[in-house]
Amino acid sequence: MTDFACPCLSGRHYQHCCQPLHDGLPAQNAESLMRSRYCAFALGKTDYLLETLAPAMRQSDDREQLQQTIEQTQWLGLQVLESSFDGNDEATVEFVAWYQDTPLGQLHERSRFCKIEQRWYYLDGVMLKPIKPERNSLCFCGSGQKFKRCHGR
Which residues form the YchJ-like middle NTF2-like domain (predicted)? Predict the structure, then answer.
């Protein structure tokens, strides 16, 4: 069944958001690839994560590392903070991915992407300082509640 809200929190159903990319449609831009990769982590799609990693960056133990991350992490939400395209074949996306931990965990990263033969690939990322959500802002999980009443307790 694919009629559920997409984990990337785009506001669309999975079948109309990240599923077409997971099924082989090329991402139109780096942000859509980043969102689909987050969704792949949340849904356990290791093959997709390997396929969308830039060929030059692949390592022999990638599959094991990805599977371990997928098994050990419960992803809660995604916030895209900034996306930029250099006009050629490179782009960056800054995002925060929230996950269950005690207290909450977050991956705040500025990721680099490259386009090779009309397909976008993840290159690498730079870890950034954690951000603190405003108490009165909407929660990152997409619940529609204020952070302080949802995951900010």
Answer: 29-125
